[in-house]
Amino acid sequence: MRRTMFLRGASALTLVMTMATGALAQTKPSRDGPVEVEEIIVTGSFIRGTPEDASLPVDVIGAEDLQKQGSPSTVELLKALPVSNGVLGDTNQFDSRAQGSEGSGSVNLRGLGSQRTLVLLNGRRLAINPLAAAGAGIVDTNILPTAAIGRIEVLKDGAAATYGSDAIAGVVNFITKKNFNGLEAGADYRYIDGSKGDYGLNVTYGKVWDNANLLASVGWQHRSKLSVGDRDWANKSYLSNPEAGWSAAGNPSTFVPAAASTTGFRDPACAPLGGTPGFSGITPICLWHYTPFDNLVEKQDAIQAYAEVNADLSAKTKFHAEVLYSHTDVPDWNTSPSYAALAVPTAEASAAPTLAGRYYVPANNPGLIAFMAANPTITTTSLVTGAQTTVPSSILLGGAIVAANRPYGLGGNPAFGYGASIGARAYDAFRVSGDLSGEFDNGIGWDIALTYSQEVGIRTGYDTLVNRFELALRGLGGPRCDTDAATPGIQGVPGVNGCLFYNPFANAIPGNVMTGQANAAFNPALANSEEVTRWFFQKLSTKQASRLFVGEAVLNGKTNITLPGGDIAWAAGAQYRRTYFKSDYNDISNAAINPCVNTPDYGVTTCTGSVRNGPFMFLGVGTEADKQNEVMAGFGELSLPITEAIQMQLAARYEDYGGQTGSTFNPKAAIRWQATPWLAFRASAGSTFRGPPDPQLVTSSITSLQSILGVFRAVDIYGNPALQPEKAKTYNAGALFKAGNFKASIDYFRFDFEKPIVAEPVAGMVAALYPNGAAGANNCGVAAYAALQARFTYSTSCNTISSIARLKTFYVNGPDIRNSGFDLAADYRFEGVLGGDLSIGANATYIQEYKVSAQTVEGVLVSPAFDAVGKLNYQTIAVPIPQWKGDVFAEWTMGPHNLRATVHYIDSYTDQRVAPFLTGAYKDSTGAPVTVSAGKKIDTQILTDLAYRVFLPWDTTLTAAITNVFDQEPSYARLDLGYDPFTGDPLGRTYKVGVRKKF
Length: 999
Prior knowledge:
- By secondary structure, the chain is mainly beta.
- Among the domains are: 248-289 and 338-407 and 476-528, no CATH class; 680-998, no CATH class.
- Helix content is 6%, strand content 45%.
- The chain contains 9 helices and 55 strands.
- It has a 22-stranded antiparallel barrel.
- It is elongated.
C-alpha cells in the first residue's frame, strides 16, 4: 500500500517548505514474521499536493534502518553521517568549542558549526543548550526521545527562507512514530573493554482508535566511565607525545631560593614519582601527565519521557499535542587534581610587601624544613645562563618561591581521595507543543501551533583561591585559623590553634596515584590535610537556562491559475518567537560578589589593574545575565507546476529582531526537471541567515581552558551586544538516477558566508603578538600592537611569555567563508542471492573548499586567509574538515534475517600548526633540544561494523552488532587526549546486543 504524508509543522511557520521528498520502505515483525508495510513519502512543504520527488537534497533515516545498523546511539549516528563534521558528544574538555558540554550532543552539517544546523522535533523548534560551546546556540540532541523516534530527515541545504534562523547549513528533523499500536519493551548492552559497558532500557506504548491515537515512551541510557588510563594509545611518554596531556606547571614543582632569586631547581622527586624532568627555556621544570586523571567517556545517565496525542475533532479539524521531559546527569566529571597557578597573591596575604605577587614558602614550613634535612645539597640552574651548580640546601633558610606549580598533581587531590578533581554536569529539558489544523469550506487549509521549550544546565568544578593558598603556605590556612582583615597584620600563629600549613614539597605526596609508584620520600606527618585543602579549594557552580516560546499560524491552498502541470498552490503565514537566557553563579564565582583576588577574605572590590577575574588561580568568575529577545516573522511560498516534468517552488521569509540586530529578508527558489523516466535534475538558490543567540549578546564572559604556547591558560570569551545576523547565499545543483533496482544521486553544494558569528581565534592572537613563539623577538611594547597586548593579562610582563595568565576574547562578526563540495549516493539491490536479497550502496561527501578570509583583531592581522579543508583547524574558527568522508555497505536479507556490513572512511587531514613541529621545540632533561614530528598528519581512518537482526517468535526481535571489527585505534593527533574527539572513536572494538519484545 502506498500513502503520502505531508510534514506539516515546524518551528515556525518556519517549517514552510523543505520542498523535498524521499521514499522509505519499511519492514516490521509480526507474529508470522516480517511483512511489508506502507511506504512513507516525506515532504516538507506546507503546500498540499507538493510533488513527491525531491527538489532539495533530503536523506531519510528510518527506525528500521537504525535497527539494521545495530541501533547506534544518537551521537554515534550523527558523528558517522558523511555530511557532518565536528560533532559534540564525546568528552573533549580540552577544546574550547566543547568545554562544559559533557553529557550533551550536537549535529554539525557541512562542518559549518552545530549552531548553524536547525534541529527540530516533529517539525518544531527546541530551546538551545545554554552550556554548550559558550552558549553558541546549539540544540542538545541527547534530550531527544530516541525510543519514540520513527525516522530522521536530514535536509542538506540552507533553509532560512522556510525554517527561519539557524537553518544555514540545513535541518535535521526527528519525527516520532505514527500509528504505533501496542506495547513494546527493549533493552540493550554494549561491551567496551576497560569499561563496565553501556546499557539502556525503553518502553513504548501506542493506542490507535478510529478518530485518535496515543503514543508514549520512556527511555533510559547509561554510559560507564572509560578512563584515559585504560587506553595505551592515550598514554605515551613525554618525548613521544609532548602535547598529549603534559604540563610544565605541576606538583612536584619548581622552586627559587628567596635568597638567590636568579637560580631555580625542580623537586628531585619528579622522576621517581613518574614525572619527566625538563626545561621551559632554561627554567628546570617537572613535566607531568595530567590526562590519566581524565576520562575518555564520562559516567552518564539519561532519561527521556515523551507522549503525544492526535485526534480528529471533526471531519476537517485535527488536534495534536506532545510533551517531552529529559534529564541527563554526569555526576563524576573528572579533571586534573588542580589547575595551574596563573594568578598571584596580593599584598594582604603576603609575608612582606616585597613578596606580593609571588607564592612564598617561609623557612618555618615543615615541608621545607624536612626537605632541607633530606637534601643537604641541591642542584640549581641559573635562570639567566642555564648553568648548573650544586649548592648547600641552606640556601633555602630564607624561604623559597614556588614557581611553575599547582597545588596538586601527580599525587592526586586529598579532598577527593588522592584522585582527580571531580565536578558535575546536569541538564533538564522540558517541551510542550500543540496545534490545531483544518480546512475551511473553500478548501483553504489552516494550522495554528504553540510551542514552549526550555533547557536548564548546571555545571560545577573546583579551583584554588589564590590568597588562601598563600596563607596556607605560611601556616595560616584552614577554617579554624583566625584571620582579621580589619586589624593590621594577620591574627593567628602559624601551624597552631587550628592554623594549618600547606606543604608544597613532594615529601607530602604518598605516591603517583595513577601509576602506583610509591614515594620513598613521603612522610605521613607532612601530608596535606583534607581540611586545609577544602578550605582553599572551592567549588564553582553555574546554572544557565534557555527558554523558547513559539506561536505560529499558516494558511495554504490553491489559486485559480492553472499551468500546464496543474494549479499554482500557495502557503503564507506568520510566526512569533520569544527567547530567554538566564545565568546564575554561586557567590564565590560571581563577579558581582567576588571580583578580585583579595575580595573573599579581605573585602577588596577595586581590583589591581582593574582586572575583575575573581579570586581563583585559574578559572575566572562570571557575571549573571538575564536576556530576552523577540522575533517577528512572515513568509510566503508558491508551488509552480510549469509542466508535468518541471516543478518550481518559490519561498521568501522576513524576520525582524528589533534593536541593534535589525531585520533580514531571505528568498529561495528551487526547481526540478524530470528529463527522462530514469534521470532528473534539481537545483536551488537562496539566501539564509542566523540571528545571534541570547548568550552571545550579553556583556558577561565565560572562561575556557586553552593551550597558549604549550601551556593551558585561561581564555575569557565575552559576549557582544553589537552582533549582527550572519548571512549566507546557498546553492545546490544535482542529478538523480533511477533505473530498476539502481538509484543514485550527485549534488553540488556551495555556501557563501558573510560575517559569521565567531569567537576571536586564540592561536592567531598569540601568534600575532609572539610571531617567534617562546623564542626570539616579539611585538610587546610596539605601538601598533598596544590594543592587542592589552587583551593579555600577565603575572609579570609581556616579555616574559611564561607569565601569560589569561587572554580576553569576544564574539564578533568574523571573516567571510566559502564552503563547497559534492554529495554522492548510490545503491543497488540484487534479488535472489543465496535465497534472499543483497543490497550494496555508498554515501560520501567531498569538500572541495572551505576558504576562510583574513581576520583582524584590534587592527592587527591575526589570521591570514586559509583553506580549512584537510586541516585539523585547532584554535581557528573551523572544526576539523577531512576532505572525504563516507561509507559503503552491503546488506543481505532472507526472511527474518538481516545481516549488514558497513565500512566507514574518514580521509587523512593535517595539523596546520607550526610551533609544535619546530625543530628543537622541546627539551629533554639535560636541556638538549628534541624534535617530535609525529602527529603532523592525522591518518586515514577506516572502520568496519557488522550488525545482525533476526525476528524471533513471540513478536521478539534480537539484534547484535560489532563495531570497529578490527579494533583500530583512533588516528594519532597532537592533542591532549592523543586523538581528535570531534572525529575519531576512542572505544576500540565493542560488542552490542539488544532485544525488543512487543506485547
